Amino acid sequence: EASEKEVSVAHRVEVAMDEVSKRSRMADALRGFIQGRELADGDAELLQEDCETEDGEVRALDAAYLEYLVGRLRDAKANLQRVQAEERKLQGRASDCSRRLEALEAQLAMAASARANAGLPCPVCRTPIERQFFQAVEQPNAAAPSASVTSVS
């Protein structure tokens, strides 16, 4: 679930950055057009796509439209900042979860080690018998058959 959120937020950041870039390019192109420079083909197409209003009317490429574009650029930048803040917050949560997971894994490893070294109850009286006694018994038994085999030969 967390990685889905990270992917979603990363995609939204990318879209917001593209929107800011597009709006900035449009505003710069229109500002240049108002000052008397020619529009590049890509800029003309961008402005033409955005020039139509909801009513189907075409806006004039003038200072009022420039103000409109600058306002949309500000909105796009604000949206980008919100999405980037959300991304930072999500990254902070992910790193916090990662730290907590590492601490929990360390605790679990210590608990498993403690259980592995814990004594076993005596089957008769239930008194704990330390595991070292079992290991000590197993080691001489392992050496005993080889010694008896040697003495038999």
Summary of the model, kept short:
With 153 residues, the chain is mainly α. Helices cover 79% and strands 3% of the residues.
Taken as a percent bin, the fraction of beta residues is under 5%
Q: Provide a count of the helices.
A: 4
What is the H/E string? HHHEEH
Distance between the termini: 67 Å
Q: Averaging pLDDT over every residue, what do you get?
A: 82
Count of DSSP strands: 2
Ranges where pLDDT stays below 50 over 5 or more residues in a row are 146-153
Secondary structure blueprint with pairings:
Layout: H1 2-34, H2 41-51, H3 63-117, E1 120-121, E2 128-129, H4 131-152
Antiparallel strand pairs: 1-2
What does this structure look like?
The chain is mostly helical and 153 residues long. Helix content is 79%, strand content 3%. The chain is built from four helices and two strands, in the order H-H-H-E-E-H. It has helices at residues 2-34, 41-51, 63-117, 131-152, and strands at residues 120-121, 128-129. Helix 1 (2-34) crosses helix 2. The longest helix has 55 residues, at 63-117.
